[in-house]
Design a protein that fits this description.
Elements: H1 2-16, H2 25-28, H3 31-36, H4 38-42, H5 46-60, H6 67-85, H7 91-101, E1 105-107, H8 114-127, E2 132-136, H9 139-155, E3 160-162, H10 169-176, E4 180-184, H11 185-195, E5 211-215, H12 217-223, E6 228-233, H13 242-249, E7 257-259, E8 266-268, H14 270-279, H15 284-287, H16 295-308, E9 315-318, E10 321-326, E11 331-332, E12 336-337, H17 340-349, E13 359-365, H18 366-371, E14 375-380, H19 387-394, E15 398-400, E16 410-411, E17 415-417, H20 420-435, E18 441-444, H21 448-460, E19 466-468, H22 476-481, E20 489-492, H23 512-518, E21 521-525, H24 532-539, E22 549-556, H25 560-565, E23 581-582, H26 585-632, H27 635-643, H28 645-655, H29 658-691, H30 701-714, H31 716-730, E24 733-734, E25 737-738, E26 751-756, H32 764-778
Helix pairs in contact: 5-6, 6-8, 6-9, 7-8, 8-9, 13-16, 16-17, 26-29, 26-30, 27-28, 27-29, 27-31, 29-30, 29-31
Enzyme class: translocase
Organism: Amycolatopsis mediterranei (strain S699)
Subcellular location: Cell membrane; Cytoplasm; Membrane
């Protein structure tokens, strides 16, 4: 009867397409066949095993995976892992491999062996003749996993490499030439951008994308989906208005400016506008008029930097530079920055040297980067919570893989307090009480400032702890690896993406049995995160592979999550006079409500961003197809010959080399295409920044954006041809052909890449409301 109910439940979930409803029955039925092949494969020598994989490669080439192929891929992978790593893949890892090979996002709990399942799936795709990119969240994991899984790939006759920031162009080209390439999402994206600016086919480093397997898929595909990766060329510094920064620095909340409850918007009060205008030598009316049109944006950006961005929460100042903190991971977001005006304003606020701005040559969002791959699969410990987004934005379904050993972690009910200070005292007492038993403790904090404040309090209470946050992320793997030692207390910012298992007893397992007897790792969350998924990731650090453990979250009705998303706390909720703890179930309901609101806002921002970037990506795709034709054919020479036959004939005579002639024409036309695309991106940025004002006139901002963007895009190819023809017409010909520098064909002599922290404050709708509210307040 139980088996029947289970089957019916699975069918119902599949019919109504609930998250995590991918049917696993097909794959589970193949497991006995995989196991049946083991004795046969165990008898083979290493060379024979590699040869057997080679034979499968011939059978699989450019075909889809049928059941027989899935069975053999998994059996060969299991045997290769047994020999190379001394690890026989569990059935659940084989299930995960099958899920990945059939283009799903598989949810596997922490410690269940996602890395091996991903490697076996990557090998399977490679044996099918596909080039595979395993996309990770950081460079450390890319190199670690490529080297760790290298022997498994070798036994299967599959080559593997990785890319990292220190690699040269030639090293990158060599890595991408492998069957399987590991790389951080940003690093792979930056190579895509660099390839889009080459003027010779020989300079390309990436082949055409085919298969992407995304590690920590929820983090990459959802949390970072709307983050633009940018390629810039050196032009100048973005010098923030220092005078404005000094004025804004003196403003006080409540008197000179106000913020909304969500911490997304800030605006001047009448008193603030008066102070700012007087300090800048303007009249108040002038500040909002056309005569000061260049100062008002500077004031607004400086106010955002001053009022809404907090040092050690949103960013660090380290080595004389402003470095953003990735909110989803609690670590420094390497190479990431805000849009230039805001970045410069924060640098002015902190009185550090302004970084180079440059001209944006091209950009791509993480979501658009992954959309380039015809086949995408992913793996993570928390996929069900974002199943709706994965289906909506990527057409991916989630397959929930059961744990190899049942999870026995005890998830305790949240403890809610009236104030953050009361909550902090309770956390300190919880740490003391548990630490006295010898159990290891992992504390997950919201940000760097909180982690350091807690560590300081623990030190005063003679409770020694190790702090892992954005200030020391270089040592994070070693710190986390030892967090399961007896008596260890580890305080860390958000754990998502750390990528290192916490083994009870530490890496050497010396005190494992003792820690198991004590109850395993105890996880403490100092507040609910804006997403229940992030809560789950922190909890999942305890109870790996059937280990004992426990997790508890502390929260306050005055936490940022509640104040920003559900500040209207129901009346009648009382707290303990001595401790401030609230036992009323209504408090927990309020917390859950606040979290759901936060998740809804984040989803709407994602949708809103994608509505705009979808058109840009379509235009980028069309222009890149044209650019590729120019890059690979004689199109440029043909166009210039049609435009100026006589001058073209002179150039041809000077060079007397068809290949050189075509390359010179190609460089001229590509320069103008790239310049016009860069100008188009700048134009679209300006349009989008002002488009919310259209809502005041009852126009749909997105429709207006399309009306502005589409006609301008259609001018690019024709205008590039005209400009190239004009360059040829006006160029002085030499024995070397055209002096490109003298002809104005000068590309940026320095380029660099970075990520933009997009939409740090509000949506277009919220910006509209902010402006209306600001106007009303001024009246």
């Amino acid at each position: 009867m139980a088996a029947l109910i289970s089957r019916v439940g699975k069918k119902l979930r599949r019919i109504i397409q609930r998250p995590g409803s991918v049917e696993l029955t097909r794959y589970e039925a193949l497991l006995p066949a995989v196991e049946k092949l083991e004795p046969e494969l165990e008898k083979l020598s290493d060379e024979e095993l590699t040869e057997r994989a080679g034979e499968l490669r011939e059978k699989l080439k450019d075909t889809a995976f049928g059941d027989d192929q899935l069975i053999e891929v998994c059996a060969l992978g299991r045997e290769a892992a047994r020999r190379a790593l001394g690890e026989r893949a569990f059935d659940v890892q084989v299930l995960g491999t099958m899920g990945l090979l059939t283009k799903h996002v598989v949810q596997m709990e922490t410690g269940e062996g996602k890395t091996l399942a991903g490697a076996l799936a990557a090998a399977g795709y490679a044996l099918r003749g596909k080039r595979v990119h395993v996309v990770t969240v950081n460079d450390y994991l890319a190199r670690r996993d490529a080297e760790w899984m290298g022997p498994v790939y070798a036994l299967l006759g599959v080559s593997v490499g990785w890319v990292e920031p220190a690699h040269s162009r030639e090293e990158r080209r060599e890595a991408y030439a492998k069957d399987v390439t590991y790389g951080a999402v940003a690093e792979i994206g930056f190579d895509v951008l660099r390839d889009r600016l080459v003027t010779s086919v020989d300079d390309l480093v990436q082949p055409a994308p085919e298969v992407a397997i995304v590690d920590e898929a929820d983090s990459v595909l959802v949390d970072e989906a709307r983050v633009p990766l940018v390629m810039a060329g050196s032009i100048d510094h973005t010098d923030a208005d220092e005078e404005v920064a000094k004025v804004v620095r003196r403003l006080r909340l409540g008197l000179h400016y106000e913020t909304d409850s969500e911490g997304r918007n800030a605006w001047l009060t009448d008193a603030g506008a008066s102070v700012v205008a007087k300090s800048l030598g303007l009249e108040v009316d002038d500040l909002y008029g056309e005569t000061a049109s260049d100062r008002l944006p500077a004031v607004n950006v400086a106010l955002h930097a001053h009022a809404l961005l907090t040092r050690d929460v949103d960013y660090l100042v380290r080595d004389g530079k402003v470095q953003l903190i990735n909110a989803a991971r609690g670590r420094v977001a390497e190479l990431q920055r805000w849009p230039d005006g805001l970045q410069a304003a924060v640098e002015a606020k902190e009185q550090v040297t302004a970084t180079d701005r440059g001209e944006i040559l091209d950009s791509i969002t993480v979501q658009a980067l992954l959309a380039r791959y015809p086949e995408v699969a992913g793996m993570t410990g928390t996929a069900v919570a974002v199943a709706e987004q994965l289906r909506e934005f990527y057409e991916l379904e989630v397959a929930v893989i059961p744990p190899n050993t049942p999870n026995i972690r005890e998830d305790l009910e949240d403890r809610v307090f009236a104030s953050p200070s009361q909550k902090l005292r309770a956390i300190e007492e919880e740490i003391r009480t548990v630490h006295e038993t010898g159990r290891p403790i992992l504390v997950g904090t919201q940000d760097v400032a909180e982690s350091e404040e807690l560590a300081e309090k623990l030190a005063k209470a003679d409770l020694e702890c190790v702090v892992l946050n954005a200030r020391n992320d270089a040592e994070e793997a070693a710190i986390i690896a030892e967090a399961g030692k007896k008596g260890a207390v580890t305080v860390s910012t958000q754990m998502a993406g750390r990528g290192t298992d916490i083994r009870l007893g530490g890496t050497d397992g010396a005190t494992r049995d003792e820690v198991v007897e004590l109850g395993g790792l105890h996880v403490i969350g100092t507040a609910r995160y804006p997403s229940s998924r992030l809560d789950g990731q922190l909890r999942g650090r305890s109870g790996r592979q059937g280990d004992p453990g426990s997790a508890v979250f502390f929260a306050s009705l005055n936490d940022e999550l509640v104040l920003s998303n559900a500040p209207d706390v129901p009346e009648g909720i009382t707290d303990d006079e001595e401790t401030g703890e609230i036992k009323d179930p209504a408090a927990l309901r309020q917390l859950n409500h606040a979290q759901r609101v936060a998740e809804g806002v984040d989803l709407e921002i994602h949708r809103n961003t994608w509505r705009y970037t979808r058109l840009i990506e379509r235009q980028r795709r069309d222009l890149l197809a044209h650019r590729d034709k120019v890059l690979r054919t004689a199109y440029a020479a043909e166009q210039l010959e049609k435009a100026h036959e006589e001058k073209f004939g002179e150039l041809k005579e000077k060079l007397d080399d068809q290949e050189k002639l075509e390359q010179m024409c190609r460089e001229v036309l590509l320069f103008h295409i790239d310049q016009l695309w860069s100008d188009h991106l700048a134009y679209l940025t300006d349009v989008r920044e002002s488009i919310h004002l259209r809502a005041l006139a009852r126009e749909t901002p997105l429709d207006e954006f399309h009306r502005a963007a589409i006609p301008e895009f259609h001018k690019i190819i024709g205008e590039a041809n005209s400009r190239a023809a004009k360059t040829l017409e006006e160029a002085e010909l030499t024995d070397e052909g055209i002096d490109l520098g003298d002809a104005g064909v000068r590309r940026a002599n320095t380029t660099w890449t970075y990520l933009v922290h997009d939409n740090p404050f509000d949506s277009d709708f919220e910006q509209t409301i902010k402006k209306v509210r600001s106007m009303i307040k001024r009246k």
